[in-house]
Automatic annotation (TrEMBL):
PROSITE patterns to which the protein is assigned, alphabetical: ULP_PROTEASE
The protein, known as: Ubiquitin-like protease family profile domain-containing protein
This protein's record includes keyword Hydrolase: yes
Signal sequence extent: none
Family: Belongs to the peptidase C48 family.
PANTHER family: OS10G0338966 PROTEIN-RELATED (PTHR33018), TRANSPOSASE, PTTA_EN_SPM, PLANT (PTHR33018:SF31)
Polar residues: compositionally biased ranges: 24-60
Biased composition (Low complexity): 10-23
Biological processes, Gene Ontology terms: proteolysis
Keyword annotations from UniProtKB, A to Z: Hydrolase, Protease
Species per Swiss-Prot/TrEMBL record: Cannabis sativa (Hemp)
Gene3D superfamilies reported for this sequence: Adenoviral Proteinase, Chain A
Region (Disordered): 1-60
Amino acid sequence: MNERFSTIESQMKMMMSHQSQSQPNNATQPEVQSGNGVEGQSGNRVEAQSGNGVEAQSGTRVEAQLGNGVEAQSRTRVEAQLGNGLEIHQSTNSKDEPCRLIIESSLETVAKGYIVHTGDDKIHCDDIRDNLRVRITEVIVGDADLPKAISDEVVKVKDAINTFVPWPSHLVLRGFEDDVSQVLHLEEISAAVISLYMRGLYETLLKMRIAQYVSFMEASQFAPSIGKTNNIVERARLLAERLNLVEKGMFLLTPYNLGRHWMVIIIYAHSQDAYFFDPVGNHPKEDVVSVVKSAFDLYNARNNNLRRKVQGVTWYTVQGPKQPDDKVCGFYIMRLMRDLTMSNDPRDYLEKHCYGQKTYSMDEINEVREEWVSYLTEYMP
């Protein structure tokens, strides 16, 4: 596994190092940066040569050619073409950010576009509130519903091409340069890294025909330190809405972050059992217990589960593998989610298997990193 990851690691390092090596020679030289970190500078001519044959040249345009076929060109925009046919487009307006737009129910990417920062707090006369102003430039799932219909004629993603629309901020995934660095250097990882991994993991489970047993919830919907709200009532409402979508026999996984530390919660809605995994072995936080209890109060009231409401939530602390330092907690919860969702008996895995493993090996962590890179190449904007 170390050998397998080293090849991907070298590619990631090349992308990141080339970005840091290309610096302007003086203040009058414009700089062009592509979505994958390739940079060139325009003057008379600038050349940068790296170990895998990366070369950037600029006359009237900037071109960068990587050994895997990535090419970046700049005129009115920057384009990067990967060998697998994916395209990255970055607006020349430095305030616009390339992004992917996903939907809540399946974490599926339904469109690509740009976050547009104008300073205006309204779109089509409506307040933006917890949304971002985005411009859809590429439709992936045209029949997907917009989170908020613009009019009777603009209700689907395919209706909104090249149109400004409000999109919930927690469902907008930005560029991945920082995320690549975090995964490469085994640093503290962001919610976007975990979100991408959950999306890729779900696709893998679909191919294995076992996705019907699991559902995922975005960390930004639940975690107070990175979410859109710290309000327990609002977070409980969001969790209750998700629980109502979970069918009998399924379990819901949601990453949780409280002060730069990742944990994960696994909930069986119909039995009201909740498992808490903290890579340092702590018991459920008071904040977690309060939100889950309030969410189940709403869930039981809606479903007339009076007996369940009296019974309450049963909590279990998963004493699984312990992290060796203070930076790999995110990789640990991704690995646990992977092993849990692929196990034949998830409950048995949580209650028995985890207890016999003291830590994850570097091979096991590298496997997660390798999978994340493969998901990145598939889903990157």
